[in-house]
## 1
Amino acid sequence: QVQLVESGGGLVQAGGSLRLSCAASGSFFSITAMGWYRQAPGKQRELVADITSGGSTNYADSVKGRFTISRDNVKNTVYLQMNSLKPEDTAVYYCKSVVRTPPYSYQYWGQGTQVTVSS
């Protein structure tokens, strides 16, 4: 079993910054991809950014140039630095990790952290 614990959400004014963290713990061989998704009220959950174990990143067009994803493979932690926040970034942000316990891979989600950007 794997647990993902998120932190760093909150209320911020437009133009401000927040940093989200997600730490994975439990029993597994390795973590492959880690990422952040978000879900705004009445909308589907969408990818914000993800990162492979080798450091390759992928971003939604709406956050390119403003958000930066990074990870610490020793701490099994993924971060999302969010700058120049906009009201449309308001959502619940979820961390996702894909872990390997050979020969299988499993997908886990965090509990979500609220990010609210006021105009």
## 2
Amino acid sequence: VQLQESGGGSVQAGESLRLSCTATGFTFDDSDMGWYRRAPGGECELVSIRRRNGSTYYEDSVTGGFAISPDSDEHTVYLQMSSLKPEDTARYYCAAAHGADIRVVITGSRGCWGQGTQVTVSS
């Protein structure tokens, strides 16, 4: 299983970014996909999930501003982030759970493994 995040950058508050996570080595359509983040000095935090049944979940602070969407042909899941705030500054990671509930499989810091992609929002 390999996941490659990209799309991070430095933006001003109120601007937008789209993160991408490209997956290889497993059946994309049979997997829950999630985005997580870790702010400097903080813990790994679940941001959003796109479950294999098509349902989605958003952490309260990003509801209404972030949108998760898949591209099955490209084996990619996107996180469109709009109206970014300085408190969204973090390194963002994606994770996957094949045939299982991602909230059961990916716990604690496991959501923030790998390279990730840095998002910096200045005021």
## 3
Amino acid sequence: DVQLQASGGGSVRTGGSLRLSCAASGGIYRVNTMSWFRRAPGKKREGVSCVSGRDGRTFYADSVKNRATMYKDDSRKTVFLQMNSLKPEDTAVYYCVTDALCLVDRIMALVGSEWGQGTQVTVSS
């Protein structure tokens, strides 16, 4: 099994930036599809971004497109989510997830997906 350790969350003002990190240990990191999900109070869980373990393509939810960049550092077994132009609606706990469904129009956790512990992002106006 892959173990995931997310970090980098914090409190910022609208328009600010954060870089979330997720360090993976165990498992077969290179072939895992890696994803970021978020859950805001009172809202449904949302797949934010993913990078396919099969072909390296990266996809984003419409809510963060053009404001977020997800990338990997395979030498460090770490994935990153750079988020810019943050808005109050980005406030949520962000989770790193392996082996989610990663498609251009759908990022969805599956039964076998592994979840990290989450990191809080708070954006104030």
